[in-house]
Amino acid sequence: MNILVLHGPNLNLLGLREPHIYGKETLDDINAALAAIARDHNVELRILQSNHEGALIDALHDARTWADGVLINPGAFTHYSYALRDALAATDKPTIEVHLSNVHKREEFRHTSVLAPVCTGQVLGLGWRSYTLGLTGLIQLLEQNKPHAE
Fold first, then answer.
1. If both were cysteines, with which of 34, 76, 124, 136 could 99 make a disulfide (CB 3.0 to 4.6 Å apart)?
2. Do 98 and 121 meet the contact criterion of CB atoms below 8 Å apart?
3. Domain range list for the chain
4. What is the pTM for the complete model shown?
5. Where does residue 59 rank: exposed (0-12), middle (13-18), buried (19+ CB within 10 A)?
6. Which of 20, 22, 52, 79 does the annotation list as catalytic?
7. What value does the mean pLDDT take over residues 36-57?
8. What is the homologous superfamily of the domain 2-145 according to CATH?
């Protein structure tokens, strides 16, 4: 099983940027937690963080040929990137959108995800655990839906 993990803009600053909102864990800490879960489930992860919308879109286009699913924290692109939304739709893979904070308890503009309609599900507001729960849920969905040998 192969899963693409995408971290959007400013997530490279985790642990430094507004820790009262995003937590003290770094992106490396989160990636290590995801890698441990992947190892336990015999899953291959490809992880990319980019502050550039086009790089995330290119990764999604590439994932069409190798990935079974996508775990994405699109950061601020959540609220306005129709290009990223269209790339997710074109990828046509089960996708879990994750957010460290509860976006519904924050500024009004953060309440809407233009990506949600093309995602399988969302996990938010649980800090770094949003990622680990999102990955665990995605793995379970993929295992449930994989064809069984008779």
1. 124
2. no
3. 2-145
4. 0.92
5. buried
6. 22
7. 98
8. Dehydroquinase, class II (3.40.50.9100)
